[in-house]
Amino acid sequence: MGLSVDFGTPVNTALLVYILYSVQKIIFPPLPNLAPKSVPTEFKEGYSWMPKSHPPTLLYQTYTPKSLVKYDGKDGGRILLAINGMVFDVTTGRNFYGPDGMYGNFAGRDASRGMAKQSFALGTSPRIIRLRDLHSQADYTEMLTPIDQPIDKLEDLDQEEIENMRGWIEHFSNKYVICGRLVENDAV
Prior knowledge:
The structure is a single chain. The protein is of the alpha+beta class. It has helices at 10-27, 65-68, 94-97, 112-117, 126-134, 159-175, and strands at 61-63, 80-83, 86-89, 177-182. Strands 1-4-3-2 form a 4-stranded mixed β-sheet. The radius of gyration is 33 Å and the shape is elongated.
């Protein structure tokens, strides 16, 4: 006795259609409607790949410690800092290098020694004063050279500190624009 299906009755035909429809919904579920409900306003006049405004043009310049100090980010201005003679525009990192940022003391200055020694505080801050109490006076050096003195030659850095500085230079080179070089005050 074999299985036979009689399509002659309307009930059998309706059951077969319902079963096929249910199987089709399980195997091929409906796709969600991905079309937006409304046209985005920025594309109503057509799409343009051009940016709304271009960033300001940066010229590669020569800076001195005295000319660099005005780029400290105060009053919303540009923020530049130098590491080993390379000047970086870190304005996009205003949260870090701006006046209220955790590395704000390096804005507008040569940060080479601080980056090499992994010390990010000013020499007169309470943190450094506490370090002075913990370590001998010989271990303490200023992280920022005064702007009226010659650029720090960094001759007393050991190999590990030089590698730290190179790592920071590589990090800054990949993230920020190199916009100049730092030279002695009397060189310009």
